[in-house]
Specification:
This protein is of the alpha/beta class. It is 53% helix and 15% strand. Strand 4 (210-213), helix 9 and strand 5 form a beta-alpha-beta unit. The radius of gyration is 29 Å and the shape is elongated. The two termini are 47 Å apart. Residues 127-136 have low confidence and may be disordered.
Length: 550
């Protein structure tokens, strides 16, 4: 979103607040009159007024009317204090000057609501800077390197990836015109870390993953990497592992936009938060009804839930507890927004399963930073749970879920869908002859070749042992056979150096698909068809690809 677009959206939210301010004052005035007439003792009126000023404190503060927000917050606190004194010591214990303060704050709030104007908002006067996107989406075919060295550069270029060698912090800062898919920093070949920190932070803020390599992997090297602010650190033992790690980091961040669901019973605030997050490049949706939370979570599939803590009928803590009862949301970060100042109550609110607490009114840059960092971390954790520990490909159950999902999507769009099962040939013999460590190396090598040879939208999995799977959305079965054939040729050309000698391995594969415009096959039917084709490939002598009969 452009600067002007963001300002227009925020100006609209401020204008809506201003337009409703007099109506709000007229609506709350009778309850305030009743509360004052009772000497601030009417419990029902106190609850209504307290809820009103609570919402007003958050809304006015967020929209740039700081004085009005702070006054509303002060009255909310005073109402709570008066109630506690009455409950503990009786009505006579409330000092007259305290009641006079409440009267004065109420007058200021009513006058403030009647006098607000769009031009009085500090939010619109603040230099709001949405994320300045790079020149397009990060390009996985381009990697920036700092002191990478010949071995790593050759490895990068051998995969068809363009490696841009960066010689200075100024050159790194100029990368905004290129949009690389990642940055590799060799700690052994660079100095002046402080000068590099700013440009690296700038790239990371745009979503470009930064990986540090080199050194021995022990504490001093790891600490240096942390102080550079990189996303991950690896010793430079295996250039192939460096590229794989960078690819996984990029996939976690850029498989699809980060999604944020914002729940606040104040529709204006929910919209403002969604607008601010959207301007920073996140896909955000606002909602106001806690009763619809499960429905919206299922439909929107957010990476992060941001929720107000105090809402009528259902608190944010209750929403968090309800969400955590669902296993599919176990790793989704939950962030509370509230004016609550009591540390004990904040900690208690976090206990049902929330991850962070942001005080209202929240600065836009704080909101974006808190949400983005937790979204990336949550997505990374979810990815780890869905992946096989050795190959880092998706697990069998994740592949089946993906096959169901892609099948449903193909059914709606009419696009073709293909599925392939791969099985390493004579894998038991490799283990027996060369040892299980070599067998593991073969599995890792095939996984690495699959990641480099196939598209980012293809889902790659290890179904157990030596069996692998590939889901190819939008790909007809005949074309998928060609893709897997190319993969087979590429893999059989790999040579592994082991203590027992050179090892080469091959695989057999079966491919099944749903033609474009045809009724989609179920995940079970596609899996079964590919499995039968795989069995036929083995029966024909292995090291081949067979297309299932339609």
């Amino acid at each position: 979103m452009s600067m002007s677009g963001l300002q227009d959206r925020l100006r609209g939210a401020v204008a809506a607040f201003v337009d409703g301010a007099i109506v709000s004052a007229e609506a709350i005035a009778p309850r305030l009159d009743l509360l004052r007439a009772s000497g601030w003792a009417d419990e029902d009126a106190a609850a209504d007024v307290s809820h009103f000023v609570h919402r007003l404190a958050g809304t006015a503060g967020t929209l740039g009317f700081g004085d009005l927000g702070r006054t509303a917050g002060a009255l909310e606190t005073l109402i709570a204090d008066i109630g506690e004194v009455r409950l503990a010591e009786g009505a006579a214990a409330v000092a007259p000057d305290i009641l006079a303060q409440a009267d004065l704050l109420a007058d200021i709030i009513l006058a403030g609501l009647k006098g607000v104007a769009v031009g009085g908002s500090d939010l619109l006067a603040t230099a709001m800077t949405p994320t300045q996107g790079l020149a397009g989406s990060p390009d996985p075919a381009v990697v920036a390197t700092i002191g990478a060295g010949p071995a790593l550069l050759n490895m990068v270029r051998a995969t068809g990836t363009t490696a841009i060698e960066i010689a200075s912090p100024d050159a790194l800062e100029a990368l905004s015109v290129v949009c690389p898919g990642g940055v590799i920093v060799n700690l052994e070949a660079m100095d002046g870390d402080d000068a590099w920190r700013g440009p690296l932070d700038g790239l990371r803020a745009q979503g470009v993953p930064v990986l540090a390599v080199g050194g021995t992997g022990d504490f001093p090297w790891g600490l240096r990497a942390c102080r550079l602010g990189v996303d991950a650190y690896l010793p430079l033992d295996d250039p192939g592992e460096v590229l794989d790690r960078l690819a996984r980091m990029r996939l976690t961040r850029h498989a699809e936009p980060l999604r944020v669901l914002v729940l606040d019973d104040d529709a204006v605030l929910a919209g403002v938060y969604a607008t601010i997050l959207g301007a920073a490049g996140l896909e955000a949706e606002g909602m106001t009804n806690p009763a619809q939370i499960l429905e919206r979570l299922e439909a929107f599939e957010p990476d992060v839930l941001v929720t107000d803590l105090h809402m009528p009928g259902c608190s944010g803590a209750e929403v968090a507890a309800l969400v955590r009862h669902r296993a599919q949301y176990a790793t989704m970060p939950i962030i509370f927004l509230s004016r609550e100042q009591d540390l004990g109550l904040q900690l208690g609110a976090l206990s049902p399963g929330a991850d962070f607490f942001l005080p209202k009114p929240v600065r836009p840059d704080f909101l974006v930073s808190a949400v983005r960092s937790r979204a990336w971390r949550g997505r990374g954790l979810a990815e780890m749970m869905r992946r096989d520990g050795l190959s880092r490909l998706f697990t069998h159950s994740t592949i089946l879920d993906g096959l169901e999902r892609e099948g449903a999507r193909a059914g709606r769009s009419g696009a073709p869908l293909s599925f392939a099962l791969l099985d390493l040939d004579h894998f038991k013999a490799i283990n027996q002859t060369h040892g299980h460590a070599t067998g593991d190396q073969v599995i890792v090598t095939l996984a690495r070749v699959m990641r480099r040879a196939l598209r980012g939208c293809d889902l790659l999995g290890r179904c157990g042992g030596e069996e692998f799977a590939v889901i190819l959305p939008g790909t007809p079965a005949e074309q998928a056979v060609g893709v897997i054939e190319d993969l087979r040729t590429l893999f059989r050309g790999q040579t592994l150096q082991t203590p027992t000698g050179e090892v080469r391995a091959t695989f057999s594969a079966g491919v099944a698909g749903t033609p474009a415009g045809s009724p989609p096959l179920s995940a079970t039917a596609l899996f079964t068809a590919a499995d039968k084709a795989l069995a036929e490939a083995k029966a024909r002598g292995r090291d081949r690809v067979v297309l299932a009969e339609s």
